[in-house]
Amino acid sequence: MKTMAEKNALLSRLRKDRRGNFAMMAAIAVPIILGAGGFAMDLTNMVLAKAELQDAADSAAIAAASALASDGKSIDEARVIAAAFMKTQLSGSRVFTWGKDGIPTPSIEITQETTAGVGKTFKVAVVTSGSLEFTPLTKLMGFNSTTLNASSSTESATESKNALSMYLALDQSGSMLANTNELNTAVTGRCEQFNESGTSIGKKSPCYIKKIEALQIAATSLFNQLNKADPNTKFVRTATASYNSSLVKSYELAWGTTAAQKQVDALKGGGGTSSTGAMNAAYTKLSADTEQNEHKLKNGQVPTKYIILMTDGNNNNTSDDGATETICKNAKDAKMEVYGVAFMAPARGQKLLKACVSSPENYFAAEKMSELVDAFKAIGDRASAIVARVTR
User: Fold this and answer.
1) Which of 101, 124, 158 finishes a domain?
2) Best exposed site among 125, 227, 273, 347 by fewest CB in 10 Å?
């Protein structure tokens, strides 16, 4: 039997003996190193898997939103499209290994709200998850798998239209029979021509497009813009009033632009200039309760209201300038959008229109037929942008 001294001596020799230390350290370190390597590999796989899962959720949400807004699909149909889209995205996964149950079906929530007019907005929320198996090296450490989650949400909307009522107060005085600088290539030979007072100066050649003809062409460009925005005539109402030395004719507002186009096409130049009556007709008819009710019954909206005042000259009496300005102020106070178009007009006529418009951007000065057409088209573009707002 060893004595205590002998045992202590043996332990001392063991402590001092360095033989076999590397093998012992390796036996301890290798599993740790392998486990760390496994964790690094799995951490990389988790980042890739999370990105794949998020991309699939985003794509599914966008696909559903697009199907609802652009393709007119029902909510149930959109859910099916989103689920199929996600499974297609994940079927080629580089890191997920799907078990016997396959790719899990995502949770897809869709809510719908009605906006102004016939528009609808949709909110799509997609939530999904996937189980990622760890490598054998990590499993040696006692970790078998982890669950990754991803969510995405998006919104879309169908076409949402906004109603408007537009009234055109148009100059048909004698000076509107004068020539523009645009040759009328549709007429050969001589044609009757007029001076700036609207007095005939006989038949002459070449023939030019008259101011009133240029106005008719320009108004058509405006109406075309409105027709594109409201092809089913559910949101746009238009009418015109024409004037020379007094109000010539004012019409009731009607759906679409067909009636207004006929009114413009029928304009005949002649007489002096007094804008007060036409401007008052525009303001009065737009202010009427019946106009509000027409929109309420057809599209359920309060319309944006426009007045376009156009002239090529001065009012014969300066008192008409003040009276017209007063009506313009009343229209602006009533939140109507007032535009002014001066066509080859003198300084006083331009000054009146500048005082009438709702903002400097609403004033247009045209010296050529092409500029007049561009002015009316620009107004049509702005109005059309209000009528039809589309979000995808």
Assistant:
1) 158
2) 347
Q: How far apart are CA 173 and CA 191, in angstroms?
A: 20
Tokens of 270: 């002649």
Please indicate, yes or no, whether the overall pTM of this predicted structure exceeds 0.70.
Answer: no
pLDDT digits (tens, 9 = 90+) for 105-155: 889 999 988 765 556 788 999 999 888 888 777 777 677 888 889 999 988
The residue segments making up the domain with residue 115 are 31-158
62-113: pLDDT as tens digits: 988 888 877 888 999 999 999 998 888 888 787 777 767 778 888 999 998 8
CATH number, domain with residue 302:
3.40.50.410
Q: Residues 150, 298: one domain?
A: no
